[in-house]
Sequence to fold (376 residues):
Amino acid sequence: MREYKLSVVGLGHRGRFMFKQFCRCLPGVVGVAACDLRPELFYEDSHGAGGDNPAMAKLFPDAVFYDDFDAMLDKAQPDIVLVETPARCHAEFCAKALARNIHVYSDIPSVASSAEADMLWDAQKRSQALLMTGATTCGYGFVLKLQELWRQGLLGKPYQLEAEYIHDCRYLWKETPWRLPSADKPGPISYCTHSLGPLLSILDEDLRSVVCVDTGSHISGEPYAHDAQIALYQTPSNVVVRQTCSFITHGPQGHSYKVYGTKGYFERLNKRGPIPEQVLFKSTDEPWNDQLQAIAVGTKPDSLDAMLPKDLQGSLGHGGADEYLAFTFINALRNGAKQAPIDLRAGLRMTLPGIFAGESARLGGKPVEITYPWDK
Fold:
């Protein structure tokens, strides 16, 4: 079995966790290097949102720490780099790795602007390496079930889709200051991939126009701290997608989705206090099911346990979605695939609409056209 040398840039709790899980769960993946501007994130034990964990230097004594990304790529010569930097600075790191034909597993969102999208799109076209978009929610078990039902034709053509991402992130502002609202940062609607990724995976068309409005700051009173933003997207064939995103809230936390199709309906409701999460489905191709039926599927992919060693089955990221996507990526590399399972185009399809939605909100809800690098 071929060995893959793994590196990571960005040693927040997410970067440390993903590096550890890639090395623990994926046979033949060896951690060789880590990069951050803060060496203490490598050499010291960590305490925070990611829990209490031993230092990376203890867990991976053979891995080398770098405070310069270019130096890490050139000296460690990894086969794969995990890009786990703050949300608005992924593209440059990805492009530098691709320029050296190093495979990339990038956290989301893929880019922070249309200009970055053009730059990264060109970098991918010139590279022999693969870029995998680490869109966590696309690895959830219920999303894989949605895709299966759609492929089977049981939903027909989706024409109205909805997603809500509700997560009070104020407790994370100190540890991850990139989340702290300010004039030079976009509103929550730009963090759209968790919502749009699953829905776009069953849509053949790109989103082409958007109208977005926001609530302003009612809860905290802090400038630019929008309680919520709501976007309406549309495709050329008049498919409508509604996205609601709130990071300052007292409401129930998590992801909910609805898909209305010409032959069926699918809904995933996040848990509400004592009410557990639910996945509901009906289809005109199953006339005996004239009422919504509950489906026994959660966040953990059904096939994941067979992939994991037994001692790792209880220590999973995002219910197992992180590990599932990591497996699909490494398997694609081992099988000589020419395209990552969730490639850059998929990443930009789920990232760019939120950037244009933010522009619409700044314009007071005016319609804005959505464009992509492949339009040029």
Summary: The chain has two domains: 4-137+307-342, 138-301+352-375. The CA atoms of residues 255 and 362 lie 25 Å apart.
